[in-house]
Amino acid sequence: MIEYKKNIFFDKVKLNFFLEKIDLPLYIYNYKKIIFNFFFIKKLKFFFFYSVKSNDNIFLLKLINNFFFKFDIVSIEELKKIILISKKKPFIVFSGSGKNLSEILISLNLKIFSINIESIQEILKLYYLKKKYKKNINIMIRINPNIDAKTHKKITTGTNLNKFGINLFHLKNLFYLNKILKFNILGYDFHIGSQLTKINPLKKLLKLINILYINKKYKYLDIGGGLGVNYYFNKNIINFYKYYNQIYLLIKKYNLKTKIIIEIGRYIFCNSCVIISKSNYIKFYKKIFFCINKLGMNDVLRPSLYNSFHKIESLNLGKNTSFFFGPICESSDKFLSKKIKVKNNSLLIFYSMGSYCKTMSNNYNSKKKIFEVIICNNKIKIIFKKEKFKNLINNYE
Ligand SMILES: *Cc1c(COP(=O)(O)O)cnc(C)c1O
C-alpha cells in the first residue's frame, strides 16, 4: 500500500512533509479502496445493513448513508449519530442483548425498521412500552442456534453459553406469548460470530433455518455479519464473492423465498486503513530486541484483547525483531508480528486498522485519541482531530 524509497507515497499522494508536521500515530484511510468495496457489496442480491460498531467515524457513516442508507446499531448513541448525518430517516435494525428502557422507547418513537429481540424478557419490556405509549414496531427474533462459528472464543456469539439471542428451546414459548403481545415479526435474525473464514458454520446455520422456515415463513431473514478479513494478506482465506455466492446458492437450494438481510461490519473498512506510527526505542535482552513504539493498546485494543495479528512494516531497516510494544503501562500492551527489521525512529505501518480499532480505543494512561485522515482525490483530509487535553478533563466537576 505504501511505497518507500526516499519518498513515502500513499495512493499516489506524497506524505513526507505531512508526516513530519502531524502528531503520530495516525490512521490513514484509502477512499478509493473503500468505494471499491462498496461496489462489491452493491452487486449482492441482499439488503446490506452496515454494522456501526465496527467503525463509527462520522465521515465514513456519511459515505455509508449515501451508498446504502441502512444501519445495524447496538446503542442509542449510534442511532443518534446516524440521525445527525442523515436528512431522511434511514433504515435501522437495533441489535444487542442489553437494550434498556429508554433506548427501546426512542426506537419506538422513531419507528425504526426493526428491533431485534434477544430474550423473552426483552419482548416483555417492549410490550410494556408499546401499551403505555400506544406505539407499534416491527421486530425480528434473534435466535441463538448453538452453532460454533469456530473463530476465536471471544468473538463467537452463537452457542448456548453465549449471552446472545433466544435459545431454540425457548422459541415455542415466544410464539405462544406473541399470540397475546401481537408484534409483527419480520423474520428470524442470526449472528453467530465475527471473523468467519470458513463457510461450514453458515452451511449448518442455513440447514437449521430451512427447518425453521418449513414451520413458519417470514418476509425477511437476517443472517448477520461476520465475514472474515485477510489480516495475514495470504491467499487461502475465503473471499467475499465465494462466501456470499455460497450463501445465495444455499438459499436457492432450500427455496427459502425470503428477503435476505446481511449486517457486515469488519469487512467494510478494515483493509482500507493503516496506522502510521514511529518506534521510540529499541532495547534488548541478550539477542532479543524490543521495539517500543508510539501506538498502544489504548489506540488498538485487539491484540491484547483477542491476541489478534496485524501486519507491521518498518520503513527504516535495522535490528531484526518480532517484539513490538506500545507505551502503555501494561505487559499486554504488545503487538504480534512476524520478524521485521527496525531501528530507533523507524516509521512503522500497522495494517488492517479500519475496523474495531478506533471504536474500541480509550483514554487509558490519560492518552488522547489520535488523528484519522483519509486520502481522497489526491488530497489529505482530516476526518477526526486528535483529542486535546481539555477533552480529558471537561467532564470533571
Ligand atoms: C458486530 C455485529 C455485526 C457485524 O459483525 P462483523 O463481524 O463486523 O461483520 C453484525 N450483527 C450484529 C448483531 C453484531 O453484533
Topology:
Elements: E1 2-4, E2 8-10, E3 13-14, H1 16-21, E4 26-30, H2 31-42, E5 47-48, E6 50-51, H3 58-67, E7 70-73, H4 76-85, E8 91-94, H5 101-110, E9 114-117, H6 120-133, E10 138-144, E11 166-167, H7 171-181, E12 184-189, H8 200-215, E13 220-222, H9 240-253, E14 259-262, H10 266-269, E15 273-285, E16 288-293, H11 302-306, E17 312-314, E18 319-325, E19 334-342, E20 347-350, E21 371-376, E22 379-384, H12 389-393
Parallel strand pairs: 4-21, 5-14, 6-7, 7-8, 8-9, 9-10, 10-11, 10-12, 12-13, 13-14, 16-18
Antiparallel strand pairs: 1-2, 2-3, 4-15, 15-16, 15-20, 17-20, 18-19, 21-22
Helix pairs in contact: 5-6
The structure holds pyridoxal-5'-phosphate.
Pyridoxal-5'-phosphate is lined by residues 51, 53-54, 72, 74, 95, 191, 194, 224-227, 263-266.
Domain Orn/DAP/Arg decarboxylase 2 N-terminal: 46-268
Protein name: Diaminopimelate decarboxylase
Organism: Candidatus Carsonella ruddii HC isolate Thao2000
